[in-house]
Design goal:
By secondary structure, this protein is mostly helical. The protein has two domains: 63 residues, no CATH class; 37 residues, no CATH class. It is built from four helices and no strands. The longest helix is centred in the middle third of the chain and has 24 residues. It is elongated.
Amino acid sequence: MSAAAIKVYDAIRKKGTQKSVVDAMQTRADLYDVLDYHAYERKLDELFRQRQSQMSEAATAPKPKKSVALSGVPAGNTALCTVGAQRQRPATTAAWTSSTSPTRP
């Protein structure tokens, strides 16, 4: 911590106010100059603009639907997927399993 800050905090602790050290205190504008804060803000603005541009470009490109379970296979293109189709379930589970099980080569 800077010596000036220590003096300010010491004055506040002892007197309950900073009035006696206001002349020694740095203004916000002076602090921003020392830190080159405005250049930092410009850089942040540039980075945010770049990020927004990337996000808007990605949002405009249509993405094919992906099946979560089949990692990368487009939805609706599998024997397991019956998009829009409704089946009647047979009365017994055994009948359902045997009649719907895919045949293996």
